[in-house]
Design a protein that fits this description.
27% helix, 6-stranded mixed β-sheet, 3-stranded parallel β-sheet, 166 residues
């Protein structure tokens, strides 16, 4: 997918280089293939190497910066709030709030009108619910999960309610 994304970026933004790639968490389906984007900077949670070192991870582009806890990033003049989700889906998980765009991006923390594979693998239920409750206090309209489309704040609330009742 990163190769396809690289081609789309080149088509729509010719000559513009990817400045920053941010890993949402250590899972290889979210970190592999970043080299296709040739970013200048790569950001990841400080614990990610611990997990990568336990598996074959040659497709993971080495981070240039590690973060821990909530971190505000300014990239290309845009404020991005990297919100640490604690022990939820992993203990390296971030959600990203773009206040000026009223947008929330989550990775493996909520879906829009669909079911997750095998009941949400690799999840610590109390932390997962606490993370979603925290995110629902934010001011956003558009909710973009990492898989299966996008929606709105109510879609995240609906997912939380389903997981809480399940």
């Amino acid at each position: 997918m990163s190769s396809a994304l690289s081609k789309e970026l080149a088509k729509h933004f010719p000559g513009v280089k990817v400045d920053t790639l941010i890993y949402s968490h250590y899972h290889l389906d979210h970190t592999g293939g970043g080299a296709a984007l040739s970013p200048t900077h790569v950001i990841a949670h400080e614990k990610c190497p611990t997990y990568w070192n336990a598996v074959e991870h040659t497709t993971v582009l080495e981070p240039t910066r590690y973060i821990a806890g909530d971190t505000t990033l300014i990239i290309g003049g845009v404020e991005i709030r990297a919100l640490y989700m604690g022990l939820s889906h992993t203990d390296t998980l971030y959600a990203f709030h773009f206040p000026s765009e009223r947008l929330l991006f989550t990775a493996d923390l909520g879906l829009v009108r669909t079911m997750a594979p095998d009941g949400v693998p690799d999840r610590y239920a109390p932390g997962y619910l606490a993370a979603m409750n925290r995110l629902l206090t934010l001011d956003f309209d558009t909710f973009v999960p990492s898989h299966f489309g996008y929606g709105n704040k109510q879609d995240l609330a609906d997912w939380r309610d389903m997981m809480e009742s399940g």
